[in-house]
């Protein structure tokens, strides 16, 4: 099998697994315990917190460890809205956010909040003017994803952050697809809340983080112990947190190389499709180098994916969080409206382990399968 679905999840790096193993076998203590076993776990968490904070130009005590991107998104959105609702009950997001964000805003609507969903143009980039026009005196929170998980487009986060900071409106960004892959600076971008996940950067599943700017308060979303400075109850996943930090160190050290490799592989794939005169269009403006989303007219996506899978090639039709049925992409629907494009597009995402030989096989597989549909 050749894997081209790194936007869904990534294989764990061997060095990450090696780093985690001692914290499952020998240094297994509860980090809240006062004895040596516990202190060892606490020291490991503190070191990991410093690593993640450094990558964001943040302070270590601004990092909260969670069970993943979904929990981080939920905690940021629900926690902030409920904490600051006395200052206003208007919140803003976009129509092509990850479901972890969209469903959190739907929950806020049920709780009586007024939600504005910004429209997304075909470019996949929300404009500053559109955001500015949606702001109201009672707006307390805006959430816009940094890089889209289906089409890869990047939003003008820095400009949005500067706009919202001037008006004292909290700004959250889902940076799950961006963290580690691009350099992020929460101070430069004036971000108040930022979500990230380990398994998107060759770290373990089941661990993520939420950056919370000093001074920003969140209403608790879990109840129990006093872990994470009383902000997130539950015994910390020490091995996962250690693995997350190691994954960050590895990807930062190789970031420029991995970015260049993804760009080269993307260029090679499109070049092969063009040479074969395949009918296709790219969805959205080029953004994250590791994601390319292609529309193939007259292609039935479910049998298309199965035919590729039978050839040993793994790609997807969009977010893995909608797996189990091939539904129209809400991201593409937001960008292009309800049409065939939402059912005839495929997401290809590159990562560690992919090379030109694999992309040649991918291209030939795409060419053969697409022609079988388009030449009927």
Report on this model:
With 376 residues, the protein is of the alpha/beta class. The chain folds into two domains: 2-8 and 255-374, Aspartate Aminotransferase, domain 1 (Alpha-Beta Complex); 14-250, Type I PLP-dependent aspartate aminotransferase-like (Major domain) (Aspartate Aminotransferase, domain 2, 3-Layer(aba) Sandwich). The protein is 41% helix and 13% strand. The chain has helices spanning 14-20, 22-25, 36-56, 69-83, 99-110, 128-134, 157-166, 227-230, 238-275, 301-310, 330-336, 356-374, and strands at 2-3, 63-66, 90-94, 114-118, 139-143, 170-174, 193-197, 208-212, 281-282, 291-295, 313-314, 345-349. Strands 2-8-7-6-5-3-4 form a seven-stranded mixed beta sheet, sandwiched between helices. It has a three-stranded antiparallel beta sheet with strand order 9-10-12, with no helix packed on it. Strand 5, helix 7 and strand 6 (170-174) form a beta-alpha-beta unit. Helix 4 (69-83) runs parallel beside helix 5. The longest helix is centred in the last third of the chain and has 38 residues, at 238-275. The protein is globular. This is cysteine desulfurase. It is an enzyme of class 2 (transferase).
């Amino acid at each position: 099998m050749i894997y081209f679905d790194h936007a869904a999840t990534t294989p764990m790096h061997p060095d990450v697994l090696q780093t985690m193993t001692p914290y499952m076998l020998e240094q297994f203590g509860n980090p809240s315990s006062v004895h040596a076993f516990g202190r060892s776990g606490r020291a490991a968490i503190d070191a990991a917190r410093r690593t993640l904070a450094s990558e964001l130009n943040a302070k270590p005590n601004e990092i909260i460890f969670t069970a993943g991107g979904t929990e981080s998104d939920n905690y940021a959105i629900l926690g902030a809205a409920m904490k600051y609702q006395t200052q206003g009950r208007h919140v803003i997001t976009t129509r092509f956010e990850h479901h972890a964000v969209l469903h959190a805003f739907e929950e806020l609507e049920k709780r009586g909040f007024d939600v504005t969903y910004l429209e997304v143009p075909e470019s996949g980039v929300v404009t500053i003017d559109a955001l500015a026009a949606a702001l109201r005196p009672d707006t307390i929170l805006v959430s816009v994803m940094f890089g889209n998980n289906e089409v890869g487009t990047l939003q003008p986060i820095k400009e949005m952050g500067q706009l919202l900071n001037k008006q004292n409106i909290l700004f959250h960004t889902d940076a799950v697809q961006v963290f580690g892959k691009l350099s992020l600076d929460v101070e430069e971008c004036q971000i108040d809340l930022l979500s990230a996940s380990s398994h998107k950067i060759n770290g373990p599943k089941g661990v993520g983080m939420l950056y919370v700017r000093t001074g920003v308060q969140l209403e608790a979303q879990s109840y129990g112990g006093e872990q994470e400075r009383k902000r997130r109850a539950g015994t910390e996943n020490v091995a996962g947190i250690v693995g997350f930090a190691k994954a960050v160190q590895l990807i930062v050290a190789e970031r420029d190389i991995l970015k260049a490799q993804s760009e080269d592989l993307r260029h090679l794939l499109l070049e092969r499709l063009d040479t074969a005169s395949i009918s296709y269009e790219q969805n959205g403006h080029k953004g994250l180098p590791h994601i390319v989303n292609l529309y193939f007219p007259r292609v039935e996506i479910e049998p298309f994916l199965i035919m590729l899978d039978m050839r040993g090639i793994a790609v997807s039709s969009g977010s893995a969080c909608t797996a189990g049925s091939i539904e129209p992409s809400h991201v593409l629907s937001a960008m292009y409206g309800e049409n065939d494009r939402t059912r005839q597009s495929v997401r290809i995402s590159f990562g560690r382990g992919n090379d030109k030989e694999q992309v040649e096989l991918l291209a030939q597989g795409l060419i053969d399968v697409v022609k079988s549909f388009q030449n009927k």
